[in-house]
């Protein structure tokens, strides 16, 4: 499932320009990895309440693994714990 996901910086301001922000599922195999994501810090979400961010978004928000991250989707704003940072290159 892919869709809009707006990530706020610690001051509550949207990171990015809104229309190009997307969210996606992390679907690990038996080895705990998802080949679509190369983690540079931490790892993929393994429980409810966790989220992973791409390197650019994490950098712009000055987020580190373990930090709370506020995300808006097609529902109310929710807070998650950052489990990992990945690259898509």
Protein architecture, described:
With 89 residues, this protein is mostly beta strands. The protein has one domain. The protein is built from one helix and seven strands, in the order βββββαββ. A hairpin with a 5-residue loop joins β6 and β7 (78-87). The model has no long low-confidence stretch (mean pLDDT 84).
Task: Report the span from N to C terminus.
Answer: 21 Å
Roughly what is the average pLDDT, rounded to an integer? 84
Q: What characterizes the major β-sheet?
A: 5 strands, mixed
What is the domain total for the residues? 1
Quick structural gist:
It contains one helix and seven strands, in the order βββββαββ. By secondary structure, it is mainly β. It has one domain (3-87).
Q: Which terms summarize this structure?
A:
89 residues, globular, 1 helix, two-stranded antiparallel sheet, 7 strands, 7% helix, five-stranded mixed β-sheet
How does the SSE layout of this entry go?
Blueprint: E1 3-4, E2 6-7, E3 22-23, E4 38-42, E5 50-54, H1 55-60, E6 68-72, E7 78-87
Parallel strand pairs: 5-7
Antiparallel strand pairs: 1-3, 2-6, 4-7, 6-7
